[in-house]
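Milestone M4 deliverable, item 7.
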Amino acid sequence: MTPSDHNDPHDHEHFGPADAATLATRDGSRATWISLAILASTAAVQLAIVAASGSVALLADTIHNATDALTAVPLLIAFRLARRQPTRRYPYGYHRAEDVAGLVIVGLIAISALAAVIEALNRLVHPQPLDAAGWVLAAGVLGLAGNEAVAEYRIRVGRRIGSAALVADGLHARTDGLTSLGVVVATLGVLAGFGRADAIVALAITIPIAFTMVAAARAVLHRALDGTDESTLALIEAVAGAVAGVAHVEGARARWSGHRLMADLTVVVDGSLTVQAGHRIAEQARSSLLHEVPRLADVTVHVDPHDHAHEPPLAP
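Output delivered:
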């Protein structure tokens, strides 16, 4: 039972969660724009140094940074779509676009890792001298600092607003920070006289990227397949069950739509109550859920009567 009448006196109680979801979308969009600016600048500087030095480890790092910057594009599109109002064709809105963006990001991580492997293997077979080692070292440090700053920012905002796609993008940036650290190690190895250190490190860089890709894919697919966690359902049942007049809760379900949590459940009430009284209990349950369950944007509460006639007789 959900309110649809605009004259319902309880309607004002539900503006808060909707406003919070809108603010979360704006926060996600802002975090993505800032990350894009930082990573695009970092990649541009590194690309210039790659051209001067010929470092394949730095090239791998630059590819990852450029790819990480490009992952902002599907996220920005998703956040933009999330602001659109529902239509007859998309009555639930466009929030699931964020889940699609997460899948695109995982694909881009895989492509960037494959490109780095191919180039590293080629340079391992055909080694080339490393020029401007000092600049390569500086580029590695720059990449490490830029990626870690972006990763921390994205993960923090993503977890706060409940965006699996933004968290996955942050994890991607953190892995790219490791690749930048690898650039520093590779350059030191070349300076120490080990010519193939550049190619070997570039190849090793792809290992943590593969682990990050798997972790990000699991998180994004979990959301895309309407997965949630046991603690969320337990909280929903506990909050609804604590409302006065609710005998017990049945059929509680929850799923994510982008970074918005959606739920539906049935509250069982005394069968002798009037329809109006049952409606009031359902409204109270809905209000309590929207205010006590983190990131819950909407919930449908059904009401079923509790039939005392079918209860088992009490033991003597």
